[in-house]
């Protein structure tokens, strides 16, 4: 299967250094589909467990679990922790897909993180 922007995939983010997000966790693919089809390294936004403090950060996006996205608990897309991953080595499995509406919110958060106005 060809990976697409907005898919939720389980990724092994270990090993990490310092404050990087680690362990096997769901991540959202944010690279465009041309890169996803041709290049083995893609950019992902890791998901982490929801908490009130994280939900107030404007570069974090709350993601509710749905049948479409395959998540089982309320999560946060931590757009500040965006990172490249080699899908051949780090991807565990495809879980689902984020709604277009949530992807627009993630895009807005990424614009803030990378100062893309």
What would you note in describing this structure?
The longest helix is centred in the C-terminal third of the chain and has 14 residues, at 100-113. The chain has helices at 33-38, 52-55, 87-90, 100-113, and strands at 7-12, 24-29, 41-49, 60-63, 75-78, 83-86, 91-97. The model has no long low-confidence stretch (mean pLDDT 94). It has a single domain (7-113), classed as SH3 type barrels, CATH 2.30.30.110. 24% of the residues lie in helices and 34% in strands. Strands 1, 2, 3, 4, 5, 6 and 7 form a 7-stranded antiparallel sheet that branches. The chain has 117 residues and is of the alpha+beta class. It is built from 4 helices and 7 strands. It is globular, with a radius of gyration of 13 Å.
Topology overview:
Layout: E1 7-12, E2 24-29, H1 33-38, E3 41-49, H2 52-55, E4 60-63, E5 75-78, E6 83-86, H3 87-90, E7 91-97, H4 100-113
Antiparallel strand pairs: 1-2, 1-7, 2-3, 3-5, 3-6, 4-5
Extract low-pLDDT stretches: none
**What does the average pLDDT come to?**
94
**Helical residues, percent:** 10-25%
N-to-C series of helices and strands? EEHEHEEEHEH
